[in-house]
DNA sequence: CTTATCGGACCCTCAAACAT
DNA sequence: TGTTTGAGGGTCCGATAAGT
């Protein structure tokens, strides 16, 4: 119902500096998700025209111009090549306080999953790269849903009611929640019946998960929604995602990634990595940060099996009145040891 | 002030239930 | 057989505790 991040635009400063350490970027610029860096939403020379009023102009790579959340350009496109443009979605969402749905990655890496932090589709994920633990950045094993569970009779909803989107926005853009979805690839059986839902040619927003934008030569951008297969293959189409502007080379003068944070190329080409000392240190830090299963044994299971489903709770319970502490209930669910390599858990940090 | 922890809201997928 | 429902299994936001 309501959004979880809308409830507080708190000054969260962590986890966002994926483009690791550049100059600090102003937060909340035009992004639905405050704090997400925006790079080159538009040509730097276009209109910001700042720096003339005494203050030093912002570095070209962090110009605070409103952009779609997650849209980032480490550097401008090659000369003569226009910036990919995105259609501004219905302002209703922005102004009414309703934000577009949060997009999740299909599978977070084990490190991010245990830390409950945002991951991305790329496999040494941004967070792991940040901590220098690319080695342990692997997908967990998704538990298979058990079959044969009986369900009660359904309450049929009025179909007419579904015709209009909750917040009246995104007309025919793919039905309510499609604004984040790339090419409808996300849902094999999405409620396609709701609307014609033409496939976006260019999604208004890129998935927020995209942090890596500049890809070293030879590093083809991964498919998005289908998600890059674990082996690195894209989701069928070998063409770059329409949502991710892809400029194989940084223009002179731009260096989006500090040393050591390039995504590793697919063919095993060696890439400069973080200083070993830092890496190990970070690794240990990260390891300690694991907060699920291993350390506390909490969370992972929702314990929904006992009639009370967590979804019910989530949707029904108005914020502020959770007299629920459902988690404790979930804890019992000993059935899912998650997919965690477990043992490695927090200790795996081999903190040198 | 920064970073780690973790409760719980939100999201996605997909099988059961239901309609045709 | 196709569509809808709704729960399982998951991600990750954001408040807060702990550390520097
Ligand atoms: Zn990750
Ligand atoms: Zn990772």
Tell me what you see in this structure.
The protein has 352 residues and is low in regular secondary structure. It has a domain at 104-140: Irregular (CD2-Gal4), CATH 4.10.240. Helix content is 14%, strand content 0%. The model is unreliable at 1-79, 81-95, 159-291, 293-298 and 300-352 (pLDDT under 50). It binds zinc ion (2 copies). One zinc ion is lined by residues 108-109, 111-112, 119, 125, 127-128, 137. The site of one zinc ion (ZN) has 9 residues, from helix 2 and helix 3. It binds a DNA duplex (20 and 20 nucleotides) through helix 2, helix 5 and helix 6. Residues 1-23, 147-199, 222-352 are annotated as: Disordered.
**Major sheet size, sense and barrel closure:** none
CATH topology of the domain at 104-140: CD2-Gal4
Bound ligands, each once: zinc ion
Strand content: under 5%
Unreliable runs: 1-79, 81-95, 159-291, 293-298, 300-352
Order of helices and strands: HHHHHHH
Give the terminus-to-terminus CA distance: 46 Å
Query: What's the level 1 CATH class of the domain at 104-140?
Result: Few Secondary Structures
Using only CA atoms, what is the Rg?
Answer: 22 Å
Structural classification: little secondary structure
Number of helices: 7
CATH architecture of the domain at 104-140: Irregular
Shape: globular
Amount of helix = 10-25%
Quick check: average pLDDT? 44
InterPro entries: ERT1_acuK_gluconeogen_tf, Zn2-C6_fun-type_DNA-bd_sf, Zn2Cys6_DnaBD
Protein name: Transcription activator of gluconeogenesis ERT1
Organism: Pisolithus tinctorius Marx 270
Domain Zn(2)-C6 fungal-type: 108-139
């Amino acid at each position: 119902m309501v959004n979880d991040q809308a409830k507080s635009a708190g000054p969260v400063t962590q986890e966002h500096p994926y483009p690791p350490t550049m100059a600090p970027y102003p937060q909340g610029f035009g992004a639905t998700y405050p704090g997400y860096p925006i790079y080159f939403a538009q040509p730097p020379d276009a209109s910001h025209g700042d720096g003339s009023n005494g203050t030093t102009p912002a570095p070209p790579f962090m110009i605070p111009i409103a952009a779609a959340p997650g849209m980032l350009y480490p550097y401008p496109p090659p000369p003569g090549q226009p910036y990919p443009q995105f259609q501004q979605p219905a302002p209703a969402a922005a102004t009414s306080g309703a934000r577009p749905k949060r997009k999740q990655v299909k599978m977070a890496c084990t490190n991010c999953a245990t830390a409950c932090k945002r991951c991305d589709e790329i496999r040494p994920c941004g967070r792991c790269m940040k901590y220098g633990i690319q080695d342990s950045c692997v997908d967990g094993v998704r538990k298979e849903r058990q079959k044969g569970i009986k369900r009660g009779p359904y309450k049929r909803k009025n179909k007419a009611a579904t015709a209009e989107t909750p917040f009246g926005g995104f007309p025919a853009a793919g039905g309510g929640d499609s604004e984040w979805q790339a090419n409808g690839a996300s849902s094999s059986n999405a409620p396609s019946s709701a609307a014609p839902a033409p496939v976006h040619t260019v999604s208004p927003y890129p998935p927020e998960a995209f942090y890596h934008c500049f890809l070293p030569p030879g590093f083809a951008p991964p498919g998005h929604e289908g998600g890059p297969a674990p082996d690195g293959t894209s989701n069928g189409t070998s063409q770059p995602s329409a949502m991710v502007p892809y400029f194989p080379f940084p223009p002179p003068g731009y260096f989006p990634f500090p040393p050591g944070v390039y995504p590793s190329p697919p063919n095993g080409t060696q890439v400069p990595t973080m200083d070993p000392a830092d890496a190990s240190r970070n690794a240990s830090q990260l390891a300690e940060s694991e907060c699920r299963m291993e350390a506390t044994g909490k969370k992972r299971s929702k314990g929904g099996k006992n009639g009370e489903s967590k979804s019910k709770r989530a949707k029904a319970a108005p914020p502020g009145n959770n007299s629920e502490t459902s988690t404790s209930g979930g804890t019992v669910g000993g059935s899912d040891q998650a997919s965690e390599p477990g043992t490695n858990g927090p200790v795996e940090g081999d903190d040198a």
